[in-house]
Amino acid sequence: MPCYRCGVRQTDPVRGASPWRRGVRHEAQVLICPSCQREHDLDLDLDRCRTCGSSRLICRLGEVECRSCGAVRPARVADARPSSLVGAGAPGLSEEVEAALGRLFGRHPAR
After folding, report:
1. What number of H helices and E strands is found in the chain?
2. pLDDT (tens digit per residue) in 61-90
3. Is 97 exposed, middle or buried (0-12, 13-18, 19+ CB in 10 A)?
4. Is residue 41 in a domain?
5. Beta carbons of 30 and 81 less than 8 angstroms apart
């Protein structure tokens, strides 16, 4: 999953805690790269807990959970994959892999 702000993809992790941050935006789980964490006030973009106001939310299995207070609520299904995410119009992982294999093996995509 790419960073929702800039579209950069996560690289292989090193040992220790990941510098990437998880969040929820428009009822969908998003990742935030370290650069965007430094450069932007992400709390303005991310959904907030209805109980405590924290932006430390995770979305899983149709639920949104607050990592600060533990409140859990059902996620709205209608807007589970918003078009406002940066990666929505960008090539997906399968397209990136296909392009990389084409470069590696000298194949050119059919047009």
Report:
1. 2, 5
2. 889 999 999 999 998 864 444 444 444 445
3. exposed
4. yes
5. no
Rounded to whole angstroms, the Cα distance separating 31 from 13 reads: 14
Which domain, by its residues, includes 101?
Answer: 21-105
Q: Does some domain include residue 92?
A: yes
Let me know: does 34 contact 18? Beta carbons within 8 Å.
no
Q: Is residue 8 part of a domain?
A: no
One-letter identity of residue 73: R
Residue with tokens 């790269």: 33
Report the domain count for the chain: 1
Residue 1 CA, chain-centre distance (Å), reads 6
For residue 83, tell me if it sits in a domain: yes
pLDDT reading at 100 higher than 80: no
Single pTM value for the model: 0.62
In sign, the C-alpha dihedral spanning 79, 59, 8, 99 is negative
